[in-house]
Specification:
Order of helices and strands: EHHEHHEHEHEEHEEHH
Low-confidence stretches: 10-33
Strand content: 5-15%
Oligomer: single chain
Shape: elongated
Strand order of the largest sheet: 4-3-6-5
Distance between the termini: 82 Å
Number of helices: 9
Structural class: alpha+beta
Number of strands: 8
Helix content: 40-55%
Length: 266
Amino acid sequence: MLLSVKQPNTGAVVGIASYFTRSAVPTFSEWIVDFLEVTGIIENTKCIFDPRPIENFLREAVVPEQLRNGIELWVAAFPSLQIPGIDYDILMAAIDLFRARMGTKAHWLRVQDCGDDETLYTLLLASAAIPLAFPKRAVEDRLYVDGGLADNVPLGALAARGITHAIVIHLENASVWDRHDFPNQTIIEIRPVDFMNKLNIPFIGDFSAMLDFSPEQISLLKKRGYQDAKYYLEPILQTLLTVRNQRDAQELLTRSTQRLVDDELL
């Protein structure tokens, strides 16, 4: 099942193949528009990958009732702008990216607040709707894409609810995130020690690895996740053990000294 999660949009793939058999256009602006139209990215498909496999997988793997009765689950989703007259997803993705860089924040949404199963599934899909790769999702009359466009860590929502300690796991080492934005929280950050990029091609390799849901990749990510956690947490654990041993030694010394003081003279 995991092998079929990432399926290219057939129309887009056929369009890309046919595009390169066509004659060149005179200017870059005409070329890029022609490319987007021919490949189908800006027509009815509006995404590179077919969303149906991941939708089906989500419905098979996620039991809404168990989520509602479990630990609070928060997701980050970025509010995508909807401008009348602009239907090109490539342009809207660029606009959303610009908005994110200019300070527009992601929305932190609690899964348990979803009133029905369909909204719950849609919210989960929205939090993973990578621009251009998968379609936007409408949640309560708002269009959302992957929250990673701005802030993929919903710690702000948890901080507002009084959380004092958190472990933040980043999916990539280059994630820009400032722990000093949360001065009242004790935070442990875990970042990947190795790159996910298997193709050694900037952006394309990262994009390919991010969308690789094969069993081999899932197994590799689990192994790396364990290794990354061990790499960051072991030194902290050793420090805590050292501090505890020092406290135990100090308490033992204090008790021994007190007994010596309390002893009567012979």
